[in-house]
Amino acid sequence: MTIALRLPRDAASVSVTRQILGAELEVLGVETQIKEDIQLMLTEACSNVIRHASETDEYTVSAQLIEDRFVITVVDTGSGFDPEKLDAEKTETPSPMAEHGRGLQIMRALADDVRFMNRPLQGAIVCLEKALRFTRDSPGELLTAH
């Protein structure tokens, strides 16, 4: 099961995307805490596109249910980034009171797997994975049981 969205690089698109994927997770019967973690990871990934991918007019978000895992891929068409710089930033912890700079830290804390890929002069890809837990007898539980 896959959902793909092409979105304008606009702050309002973050909320819309969060609501669409949140509704999908709700229908599947994903446990509340897992759903909220996914929505926060998604918000951070999309917000980074809005803040940093200045050369792009749009970006795409795809979400896949693969067995009991939810995989989100956010792709922009900006100038890309330096993955080595991201790895160096892992060791630097932003202040808890900082207004910016905690997005990568939040994504890494909530996701089971986070991958950043650079496509110089073509943009960036962020891939987030999270194991799902479903409420009893929910559609998601029934779909993943096969």
Question: What topology does this entry show?
Answer:
Elements: E1 2-8, H1 11-28, H2 32-52, E2 58-66, E3 69-76, H3 83-90, H4 103-110, E4 113-119, E5 123-131, H5 139-144
Antiparallel strand pairs: 1-2, 2-3, 3-5, 4-5
Could you characterize what this model shows?
β4 (113-119) and β5 form a beta hairpin. The protein has 146 residues and is an alpha+beta fold. 24% of the residues are buried. The longest helix has 21 residues, at 32-52. It has five helices and five strands. Strands 1-2-3-5-4 form a five-stranded antiparallel β-sheet, covered by helices on one side. It has one domain: Histidine kinase-like ATPase, C-terminal domain (Heat Shock Protein 90, 2-Layer Sandwich). It has helices at 11-28, 32-52, 83-90, 103-110, 139-144; strands spanning 2-8, 58-66, 69-76, 113-119, 123-131.
Mean pLDDT: 86
Radius of gyration computed on alpha carbons: 15 Å
- Roughly how much helix do the residues carry, as a percent range? 40-55%
How many separate helices? 5
Which architecture does the CATH hierarchy give at level 2?
2-Layer Sandwich
Q: What letter string, H or E per element, gives the SSE order?
A: EHHEEHHEEH
Poorly predicted runs: none
N→C terminal distance: 14 Å
Q: What amount of the residues lies in strands?
A: 25-35%
CATH class: Alpha Beta
Question: How would you sum up this structure in a few lines?
Answer:
The chain has 146 residues and is of the alpha+beta class. It has five helices and five strands; from the N terminus they run βααββααββα. β4 and β5 form a beta hairpin.
